[in-house]
Write a structure and sequence with these properties.
With about 325 residues, the chain is an alpha/beta fold. It has 2 domains: about 5-90, K Homology domain, type 1 (Ribosomal Protein S8, Chain: A, domain 1, 2-Layer Sandwich), CATH 3.30.1370; about 105-325, P-loop containing nucleotide triphosphate hydrolases (Rossmann fold, 3-Layer(aba) Sandwich), CATH 3.40.50. About 45% of the residues lie in helices and about 15% in strands. The protein contains 12 helices and 11 strands. The strands form 3 sheets. It has a 6-stranded parallel sheet. The protein has a 3-stranded antiparallel sheet with strand order 1-3-2. A two-stranded antiparallel ribbon has the order 4-5. The chain is elongated and about 70 Å long.
Length: about 325
């Protein structure tokens, strides 16, 4: 069948209450699906008629089926536009079935965090099955957020005794100059994304208590030298800015009953010219090593505003001709 041929699909539903929630007030969720997929959705009684190009109508049907199943399974209390966006993202990336709750959910103190893309689901699988995981990809793919969520889940379930979060204190394309204060005050700005993720998943008083007790430790990468990190879930963020010596050092800190996740974006290296990235070297050397999982997330896995994914795709397309000329 020609994908551009205009076709119509009629969907009938048993539960009008679920259909009303799915449609949204004044059908604004259906309107959002229409705009995103360039189809027409006509709601009448317990039915929805989808009209548009054949490929788009099939995608719209998958989106609506996915949302109906989620609401029927108990997602009605927190159903909102973000869930519609998740279903759209999953379907438009060519995946037939959205992830099941058990396979794609991380349980933290404040909320359950669900893998929103196929890449994130695969990433979570690696986080649960490997001692060392490298999560690579552009901003917005959830590589750090998912890693912190898995660490919080492991601490909550007492699979580990502590969380250790670290990153190299390298300035991202700027020179910030002298920073006042003690050591903690100097490095905190670099570690702010890790704090933000923790406070999003745990009550603030619990985070503060665990920071004081040492159950959660946040420190610059230089503080890892000479240590053995046992019974811990360790995350090294912004690892594209590690040198090869630093990367080897931190990888060899891993002790008994510990897991380590190294995240980074190889397109955002802030090291001085001529200094190779330890992350790039490690991914090359450690490929196919038992116990080490490596995943490359892409623009398809971006879960920020939809325009962010389009911006990244435009940059990637614009950089390809330059790379060919080098």
């Amino acid at each position: 069948m020609n994908a551009d041929k205009v076709t119509s699909i009629r969907m009938d539903f048993e539960n009008n209450d679920i259909l009303a929630l799915l449609s949204g007030e004044h059908n604004h969720y259906l309107a959002h699906i229409e705009k995103s997929l360039d189809v027409s959705l006509d709601s009448f009684g317990n039915s929805i008629k989808i009209t548009g190009p054949a490929k788009s109508t099939k995608t719209a049907r998958r989106v609506i089926e996915d949302l109906y199943k989620k609401i029927h399974a108990g997602a009605a209390t927190d159903f909102d536009k973000s869930m519609v966006d998740d279903a759209l993202r999953w379907a438009t990336n060519g995946h037939e079935n959205a992830p099941t709750a058990a396979a794609a959910t991380i349980d933290t103190w404040k909320k359950k965090i669900v893998a929103k893309t196929k890449g994130q689901q695969d990433y979570l699988g690696l986080l649960r099955s490997n001692e060392v995981v490298f999560g690579l990809g552009p901003a917005g793919t959830g590589k750090t957020y998912m890693a912190v969520a898995r660490a919080v889940e492991a601490l909550k379930k007492r699979e580990v005794e502590r969380i250790i979060l670290s990153r190299p204190a390298v300035e991202a394309g700027e020179r910030l100059g002298f920073l006042p204060g003690d050591m903690k005050e100097k490095v905190d700005p670099y570690l702010r994304p890790l704090y933000d993720a923790l406070y999003d998943m745990m009550p603030a008083d619990k985070v503060d208590r665990m920071l004081v007790s040492g159950e959660i430790e946040i420190a610059p990468l230089a503080f890892m030298r000479g240590r053995t990190l046992s019974n811990a879930h360790v995350i090294i963020d912004e690892a594209q800015n590690t040198t090869p010596v630093q990367m080897k050092m931190v990888l060899t800190r891993l002790g008994q009953d510990s897991h380590m996740v190294i995240t980074g974006d190889l397109s955002q290296i802030d090291l001085p010219d001529g200094h190779p990235s330890g992350l790039a070297e490690a991914v090359r050397i450690l490929d196919n090593i038992r116990g080490v999982g490596i995943i490359h997330l892409s623009g398809e896995d971006v879960v920020r505003h939809p325009v962010v994914a389009r911006i990244l795709q435009a940059y990637e397309a614009g950089q390809k001709p330059q790379n060919k000329n080098k």
